[in-house]
Amino acid sequence: VYPNKLAVKYNDRSYTYKEFSDRINKLAGALKSQGVKKGEKVAFLVPNIPEMLEGHFAPLKIGAILVAINTRLSGREISYILNHSESKVLVFDSEFGDIIEKIKPELPNIDCFVQVVDTEPENKNIESIEYESFLNSSPDGEHFVELDSEEDIITINYTSGTTGLPKGVQYSSRGAYISSLGNVIELSMSSTTNYLWTLPMFHCNGWSGPWAVTAAGGTHVCLRQVRADEIFRLISEEIITNMCC
Predict the structure, then answer these.
(1) DSSP 8-state code for residue 199
(2) How does pLDDT run across 206-225, given as a tens digit for each residue?
(3) What is the pLDDT of residues 88-131, one digit of tens each?
(4) Rounded distance, CA 61 to CA 141, Å?
(5) What is the per-residue DSSP string for 113-148?
(6) Counts for the chain of helices (H) and strands (E), in that order
(7) What pTM, to 2 d.p., does this model score?
(8) What CA–CA distance (Å, rounded) separates 8 from 17?
(9) Is the Cβ–Cβ distance between 48 and 224 less than 8 Å?
(10) Is the dihedral of CA 80, 82, 83, 85 positive or negative?
(11) DSSP states of 45-86 as a string?
């Protein structure tokens, strides 16, 4: 509907909806080439940057399941979640490279580590593929796998901060879609919406915000860290219409 409209903005990076779609399709193709099949899990340990948005669409596109992990957890908790969810691929930001390096021997199910290099240098001690190189490894063509049912699970979110071990909460395609449209209506979203990503995308999938803002054709303004000075600067410069506090 809006191929040339700004979809994602992050520092000096920006993507139109066509570019956003192309990147999602490449990630889907790369995951499929890695052997990720329908119903299998792809974990993301990434802050609120464009790669985390792409993670909310690419696994879904091939019928896989996203596991967005709380970036504030300890290595022990992250290891537990990756093993409990039986995730096959881990996409992680290099800021968390030291944690992943320590727990890597405890992760027998992970077939592929993909490293996002943003503000921190690449951790060379982890055998991994750099994110952009991973996207470019995708075969040509459209990568899409039909869901069997709108009740298919598309994401699993793990609780944290509880006394017991984290619990996995499953979202169905239908549940996420209804939640997203609820956001569009409640927050009066439209193609003129400029949404600032203060709410962690790992938290209940940002209350379905990645899908809601996209459904409305709004612009995602990404924010790596919740910092007051950055928030006020972006509200002013990017004419932010919506954010969650």
Answers:
(1) S
(2) 999 999 999 999 999 999 99
(3) 999 999 999 999 999 999 999 999 999 999 999 999 999 999 99
(4) 13
(5) EEEE-SSS---TTS--EEHHHHHHTSPSS------S
(6) 10, 12
(7) 0.96
(8) 8
(9) yes
(10) positive
(11) E--SSHHHHHHTTHHHHTT-EEEEPPTTS-HHHHHHHHHHHT
